[in-house]
Amino acid sequence: MSEKTFDSFKDAVKETAFDKEMHRKLSWNIGKYADTVVKGKTQYADLESAKMRSKNLKWKAMENLDKYLLEFESNFTKRGGKVVWAETSEEALAEIASVMQRVEAKSVVKSKSMTTEEVHLNSFLEKMGVEVVETDLGEYIQQMDKQPPFHIVTPAMHKSKEDVAKVFHEHHGTPINSTPEELTMVARKILRDKYTKADVGITGANFILPDIGGVLVLENEGNARLTVTFPKVHIVIVGIEKVIPSVNDLHLFLPLLATFGTGQQVTVYNTIFTGPKQEVEIDGPEEMIVILMDNGRTNLLAEAEQRQALYCIRCGACLNACPVYKNIGGFSYQTTYSGPIGSVITPHFKGMEDFKHLSGASSLCGNCTEVCPMKIELHNLLVMNRKDAVNQGFYNRSEKFGWMIWKRAMLSRKLTNTGGAGIKNFMMRLLFKNTWGAKRELPVIAKKSFNQLWKEKSKLE
């Protein structure tokens, strides 16, 4: 395992785990989210059946992924679109660079997309001398503040309205006491100008629809539609796992994603793109390219039990439910995808050796599994990742020795009772003073174990 990666994670956690102000903001924002989700669920007569049917459809899609991707490519290209297969992030970026150079692009507008965050697209384009502007309001705020998204769905979840007002004040000179409505109008005015002048529009996709050769983009602000309306070129970068069998399945997936993502009954804007502008159409891009990106996804697909993680529809519900995420925040994970789902998929996407520690960033309470609309067994997958890390030899000798001693003691009642409370408390202080005990009182082991007390009670009776 990369100690450097793990040490960086621990340092980040130390900064956020006891940040009371961040916890206050997260508690407020996640609390508001939880209230709306309760209302969103009322649209269902049988929520569990809807979740199970959707999970079964994603199972079908993943078990036949090669077939569905080829079907998508065939139908999409029939309407004049271009499909590019990218095995790695480097291949995806190389295709984007090729397009930028060919059309001599100077500016790009971009809608919210975690896949583009995954390949660090913004910094890549900026190094090419191309201006790139995030058009989702939360992403725009984060871009101004030179920060990545804090949350899969809500990029600026860790910011209060005062924090946002400060960001706008520093970058656009707006009054420091501006209201959210006033700041939204400022952003709207700035972004409208960017849309009309952009050479290329880039989006992600929430779903790939093979039977009609389309990609679906969901949003609540209308910015994604504007991103593809004015530029002559539309590039979609999407993970291959976003396939669902048919456009006719959207009646299941759209309400689930909206309910568990934002508490809505359905997202405000639901747009299907099936290719570049046709002869009968008055607007839209002259060229549309869909980049189907693997970037480690087939590593996960190869795992019979763990491939269910690819069913994820990126609603973010598991992050909002996770006590660890709520305690350490999104930045501490130092990965594109944070929270329980990020801890499950990142070791497969980016390497078990460097990111196996994320599987330990969990209480294994199972709350993530409980709230997942796709019924992904996230807490079990975290345990499987831990097992994989051990089987692949990603542990150090001291760790192995420590668990060997622990196992031996726990399997022997005699050894467990040996030594008395004094020695046990000494060992507790010796081993955990600088970790567990750094910010909290260490537990005190009782003088007698439950086993010993039970034996004494039995003798008295």
Put the structure in a nutshell.
This protein is an alpha/beta fold and 461 residues long.
The 3D shape can be described as globular
CATH architecture of the largest domain: 3-Layer(aba) Sandwich
Q: Estimate percent helicity.
A: 40-55%
Number of helices: 23
CATH superfamily of the largest domain: NagB/RpiA/CoA transferase-like
Distance, first to last CA: 54 Å
Reading off the top of the CATH hierarchy, the class of the largest domain is best stated as: Alpha Beta
The CATH topology name of the largest domain reads Rossmann fold
**What composes the largest sheet?**
6 strands, parallel
As a percent range, the share of strand residues is 5-15%
Spans where pLDDT lies below 50 across 5 or more residues: none
State the strand order across the main sheet: 1-9-7-4-2-3
Number of domain modules: 3
What is the average per-residue confidence, as pLDDT, rounded to a whole number?
A: 94
In total, the number of strands is 9
What is the rounded Rg? 25 Å
The secondary-structure class comes to alpha/beta
Walk me through the structure.
- It is a single chain.
- With 461 residues, the chain is an alpha/beta fold.
- It folds into three domains: 100 residues, Orthogonal Bundle (Fumarate Reductase Iron-sulfur Protein, Chain B, domain 2), CATH 1.10.1060; 253 residues, 3-Layer(aba) Sandwich (Rossmann fold), CATH 3.40.50; 64 residues, no CATH class.
- Helix content is 53%, strand content 10%.
- The protein contains 23 helices and nine strands.
- The strands form two sheets. Strands 1-9-7-4-2-3 form a six-stranded parallel beta sheet, with helices on both faces.
- Strand 5 and strand 6 form a beta hairpin.
- The chain is globular and about 90 Å long.
